[in-house]
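EI: anyone free to look at a 91-residue chain?
SC: sure, send it
EI:
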Amino acid sequence: MLCAVYKSSKKSETYLYVPGRDDFSKVPEALLKTFGKPVFMMIMPLKKDRVMARVQIDKLRTDLKINGFYLQLPPPTENLLKIHLQQQDTE
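SC: here you go
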């Protein structure tokens, strides 16, 4: 199975995976509007043994088959103030 990967022109570290290049037919219009103009990154084979950093390959393959797309959001930002306050409490 192959998929096309696009990065968002509006949202940092946000990626959209679709089953074929420029195949946004299953992506909701509201999502595309928020995502911005998709910037093509690559065509990628989705082999079962492939390891990815932020998504399990089985989840990606399933979402592409069922929904016709997969949206990868950035990891949550660290709340540095909260971390600092927790460190102050332990000292």
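EI: The chain has three helices and four strands.
SC: 👍
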